[in-house]
Hints:
Elements: E1 4-8, H1 33-44, E2 48-53, H2 58-69, E3 74-79, H3 101-106, E4 116-120, E5 123-124, H4 127-139, E6 147-155, E7 166-173, E8 179-191, E9 194-196, H5 200-203, E10 211-219, H6 222-235, H7 249-258, E11 262-269, E12 274-275, H8 282-294
Helix pairs in contact: 1-4
Amino acid sequence: MKTTLVIMAAGIGSRFGGGIKQLEKMGPNGEIIMDYSIYDAREAGFDKVVFIIRKDIEQDFKTIIGDRIASQIDVDYVFQNIADIPEGFTVPEGRTKPWGTGQAVLCCRGVVKEPFVVINADDYYGKEAFVHMHEFLVNHQEADGFFQMGMAGYILKNTLSENGTVTRGVCVVDDQENLTEIIETTGIQESEGRIVCENEDVQKWITADVNVSMNMWAAYPDFLDYLAEGFCEFLGNIEDNPLKKEYLLPTIVGQLLEEKKAQVKVYETRDKWFGVTYMEDKPAVVASIKKLIADGIYPEKLWL
């Protein structure tokens, strides 16, 4: 069975360098975080990578990473555009903010025709999660009117930043390892040996060991059709915040669960996430990659 890695990278700015975090060089030979995700995905069995980018950065993006890895894995591109909305809708005057991760993945409709996993461009996920997601995709299947999905569940303490608070989708998981609820929670950090956050209800039970979503979802092509339907509904209900309201994957999945239209299997991974939530995180990311290489997890020259 063919499987595809989808990377959401449309947030990358048109100027490379100058603090564009997704393209900051982290590895010893100028590798960026995406290099390691693609390497791990290919090793786990994924056959293809599809980058979601903006049209205006296509050539630069190909130069930085796309053309460089094209000999290692099949590569394709789709383009996220704020004006790419269904007939009958218009972009609200003054809106510049992208429509969010749900619309980003929707851009893959018609291009991604095989089971897929979606990730963020600037997050390091680790090898275990890709193995779990690939195994899920090849062992499950689409079901009419009911969505089979997988999610990598990261242990909260393995996703914190030393340089500030983080926002995470805090997961409620049943005894069958199925996701029952995902709660977008802001202001999470460790303070005086305990986890604190800005959601008063979550604060009552959150611990360092709960599962959180890092936007790594496994799904089948029928999910893209659902995203198309949901995007129309979303656009019809943005009057409360037309300039900033977003169509977000965790919210979409949460609605499917609430309506009992999906089963989302959570695969806990013990890998330590890292990324550049803050630019001050870069030295720690560089050190983490250096250690992974020293431990033999990756070769020093990633693509030979």
